[in-house]
Amino acid sequence: MTEDYSAELKVAVEAARFAGEFLRRSFDAPKTVNAELAHDLKLQLDKDTQLLITERLRAAFPSYSVLGEEGETGQMTADAVWIVDPIDGTVNYFYGIPLFCVSIALQVKGKLVLGCVYDPMRDECYTAIAGSVARLNGLELKVSSRRRMAEAVVFIGHGRHDGSGEDGIRRFAHISAQVRKIRILGTAALTICYIAAGRFDAYIENRINLWDFAAARVILECAGGRLEFLPDGESSHTGSVIAWNGALPIHAALQLPE
């Protein structure tokens, strides 16, 4: 029996849409960079947007804590924890590329129970409650039925930025030769939601954080897809991900030749 998290999902959608509208209005404005990393940026807008989201989530559910890319609020030992990525696709956002989203998941007693991913530039809101159906703007989603790698569109991380280094380059070349197209959006949550919507077929990344994919995972699995997360040992919040439509022979395709 599916638990009723409809009240929590309603609040998550409202918070994601509110934050998304704030980001859309700020899209063409000058942006303050708080930190420049080798392959990433941290914007003041990341912090501002997470604060907007946290205020709304905590106002509705004050006993729930919040774990986000920009820090934690509340007791992390709480049974219910919101997992937030205020701007998934920060580099895209900074460079004026309209591919980014707001991602909000809820985890209860260690289990992901709902997800909301909002793309404010296309006004696309992906939602799901675990055990139920995935939806895009209210319409039910299903993954593609593609079973042949030659028909597939996939994302695959391929360099030092995702922790795969030289092996990642080899893997990228190996997969590229098998599929119809490689696409790299620069936002994990939207990529996984695109698999849920049947637009993409698989996503492979060697280094990713929980808040990057938590909400999208619920949506993908409710749409009939699969996601495997392997923590890297240093933190349960960081590791590698394989997400796919559940039909492609993705593990066999990933095997590198000797």
SSE blueprint:
Layout: H1 6-26, E1 33-36, E2 41-43, H2 44-60, E3 65-68, E4 71-73, E5 80-88, H3 90-94, E6 101-108, E7 111-119, E8 124-129, E9 134-136, E10 139-140, E11 153-156, H4 165-176, E12 181-182, H5 188-196, E13 202-209, H6 210-222, E14 226-231, E15 238-244, H7 250-254
Quick overview:
The protein has 258 residues and is an alpha+beta fold.
Fraction of residues in helices? 25-40%
The top level CATH class name of the largest domain:
Alpha Beta
Structural class: alpha+beta
Tell me, what's the shape? globular
Beta-strand residue percentage: 25-35%
Residue runs with pLDDT of under 50 for 5 or more positions: none
- The CATH architecture term of the largest domain is 2-Layer Sandwich
Number of helices: 7
The pLDDT mean sits at: 91
N-to-C SSE string, H for helix and E for strand? HEEHEEEHEEEEEEHEHEHEEH
Biggest sheet: strand arrangement:
4-3-5-6-7-8-9-10
The separation of the N and C termini measures 47 Å
CA radius of gyration is: 18 Å
* Fold-level CATH name of the largest domain: Fructose-1,6-Bisphosphatase, Chain A, domain 1
Within CATH, the superfamily of the largest domain carries the name Fructose-1,6-Bisphosphatase, subunit A, domain 1
Largest sheet: 8 strands, mixed
* Beta strand count: 15
